[in-house]
Amino acid sequence: MVEAWGPDPASCATEALLAVVESFALVPDRPTVEVLPLASSATGPEDAFAAVLEEVIDDIDVCSIVPVRFHLAVPEDGGLAGDMEAVPAAEAELVGPAPTGLAREDLSMRRDGAGWRCHVVVTT
């Protein structure tokens, strides 16, 4: 389970994505090798967060990478867009199983006071 918060949906999603990575890998302090685009056309914050998280999980599996940094923003038409910097999984220290999916029924992203809070259960 991951919970994160931030001043806006993009910051909140970024913090959650970093927490997911920290759950299975120690990220090396070195220049990144790949930059992969991330985008969700979903207009609601929850659906956009779920779509980007699923894309990241898929890229971790298919491309054998470990994300290092995320750069996300909320485009004018909604959703989330940006990119992630990554290194090959062989260059990171894996400390647990990589994520394989998420429990959509346990996912939320909502306004919380002056900021945003999200919650998701990631499966391995």
The level-1 CATH class: Alpha Beta
Principal-axis shape equals: globular
Q: The CATH topology is what? A: Archease, Possible Chaperone, Chain: A, domain 1
Total beta strand runs: 8
Topology order in helix (H) and strand (E) letters: EHEEHEEEEE
Report the β-strand fraction as a percent range.
35-45%
List the total number of helices: 2
| Average predicted confidence as pLDDT | 94
Percent range of helical residues: 25-40%
Number of domains: 1
Task: Give start-end ranges of low-pLDDT stretches.
Answer: none
For the largest beta-sheet, the strand count, sense and barrel status come to: 3 strands, antiparallel
Backbone CA Rg: 14 Å
Structural class category: alpha+beta
**What is the terminal separation in angstroms?**
11 Å
Task: List its salient traits.
alpha+beta, three-stranded antiparallel beta sheet
What would you say this structure looks like, in words?
This protein has 124 residues and is of the alpha+beta class. It has a single domain, classed as 3-Layer(bab) Sandwich (Archease, Possible Chaperone, Chain: A, domain 1). 27% of the residues lie in helices and 44% in strands. It contains 2 helices and 8 strands. The strands form 3 sheets. Strands 1-8-7 form a 3-stranded antiparallel beta sheet, covered by helices on one side. It has a 3-stranded antiparallel beta sheet with strand order 3-5-4, with helices on one face. It has a two-stranded antiparallel ribbon with strand order 2-6.
